[in-house]
Amino acid sequence: MNWNIAEFTASYGTAKQIPAGKLPEITFAGRSNVGKSTLINKLFNRKNLARVSSVPGKTITVNFYRCDRVDFVDLPGYGYAKRSKSELTRWQELINGYLQSDRDLRAVLLLIDMRHPPTANDLQMVDFLIDLEMPFAVVLTKADKLNKTERAARLAALPDELPQYEDLTVIPFSSVTGEGVEELHTLIEEITADDGEKAHEE
Question: Which residue has the higher pLDDT, 196 or 183?
Fold first, then answer.
């Protein structure tokens, strides 16, 4: 996969607006301000492909990016307390509508801040993905902000914090040091490679 040719393609505010998927999809999910936009920019070696905001809850749309016949989907962050009830309802309908629609969704990359235990919303999302039998991996963001002792402590605690931990793929990530980028590239290429090969054959 040529990671340097990604482009923004579309943004949708309701589930009904999202067209049927025609390509394999990789989806990013996580709480507000966990670093999804930063991760997307790092994966594609771009500074401003995804807009990074210091304001939690800024992204309230489903944003699509395309790279090498794979769609990458950035879901709006969850857990932002200052949203109104109507906004929260729209958010739930948007997320649930997307995840439960008939799409070629290969995996969800669930971002969790490595500095802290998973939040109640994180655990709810894990349970939701397990119930849907949706393939997913956990990406531990902001890994560079921990020293060695803190990092070891957080990694040691995770098996007791995350359901079905022994079956999960867990990848520490840092946009500062680049940790996890190569591992994520490899993971994504493996689960989308068959379609890429078919595309070249056609």
Answer: 183
